[in-house]
Amino acid sequence: NLSDRLDSVFKKLKGHGTLTENNIEDGLKQVRLALLEADVNYKVAKNVISDIKARALGQEVMQSLTPGQQVIKIVNEEFTKMMGSTHQELNFSATGATAIMLVGLQGSGKTTTAGKLAHFLRKNGRKPYLVPVDVYRPAAIDQLTKLGKQMDVPVFASTTDMKPLKICQEAKLAARDLGCDTLLIDTAGRLHLDDALMAELEAIKTGINPAETLLVADAMTGQDAVNIAGEFDKRLDISGFVLTKMDGDARGGAALSIKAVTGKPLKFIGVGEKTTALEPFHPDRMASRILGMGDTLSFIEKAVEAVDRKEAQDLEKKFRKNQFTLDDFKNQMQQVRNMGSIKDLLGMLPGVNKKMLKDLNINDKEFTKIEAIINSMTPEERAKHAIIKASRKKRIALGSGTSVQDVNKLLKSYTQSMKMMKKFNKGGMKNLRGMLPF
Ligand code: GDP
Ligand code: MG
Asked: What domain range includes position 12?
């Protein structure tokens, strides 16, 4: 992937005392290849490379950085600029209810995103109202209605005999009666771009004048997503994008080039199927993530959301004094469970290597096992894991209805997270200290 690729390029650059035109040339050739491999638009890649080169060769000489670090810094800044520099927030109508229209091809994630946005908006103090407008497939209306029920967000009762624009107009009145201030309009999709669909979407847009017209596109489709974005933008004057399935093996190219190609901002990324799996898009953080510097800020935000600060500080103390026990480990697991998978979270951190993550593959189901195993340990064992040898392992496995292998796996996860924590502390990541979930 792109970050691994760039990592090795920059490792080479880091070794050089001075930066010559030759080794810049070398490094940038690698960057360019990496960008193309990540499926970044060809022209966009070419432009950003020439911007980076001009800056790297010229002016900006900094005392505090090595030449290689300087190039990384420039690449980071140019990537950030390319993706729109700063996070673009949603617009809301100054008066009356705000309408947010979601458009995009079938399967791109519109309905899922409508649910995610409802969750996001509610967390930000707004009152969302879900409006299903895909009248061609009764299943589509059902899908959103179910989602609304699950989340306890009201859904307009659309029926397949109603015209889409009419639904939106009636939904606006219904929203007012319910005290809802933000309509999330889930429009119909097609497998391919077609004129009839565009005309329908245009009619809805003109009729309700939404504050946002968001195109939802599947990041896994790479440059196709960017092309589709361009087509929709031409007809509908899109206000921003949502790229979904960024949790999959999307190569990152769409996120990198969509702003540069269309001139419109990427506002959110979808990172999973759950309603909580939506992140405001921050160009600077994404650039760092792509460059393998880790998405420290996103990580901190998530950690702070889920972990009580005071408790985290206590934990950090325990870590420093090597008193982090298996009981603490269990408590932390419980907290982290609320944040999505531990692996995702750690993947955002700088310096975490992929092999470590493989050993740390703990999901919800396994957590129940872990809990059982730790519960079957004596207090002494929980405090001093080193005393857990073969016979104790056998007893613990029996007691918890698991296997010795499971016990070993848990102990390995535990020692791995100890190791990682020590590494971060040594790395002097002061701002992360006291916030880490374990
Ligand atoms: P729509 O046809 O545009 O409304 O698409 P849906 O919202 O029904 O989503 C299509 C599929 O993509 C569903 O299986 C969703 O669970 C899945 N999906 C949507 N967004 C994401 C995402 O960010 N990550 C992952 N992994 N799956 C997603
Ligand atoms: Mg749908």
From this structure: 2-82
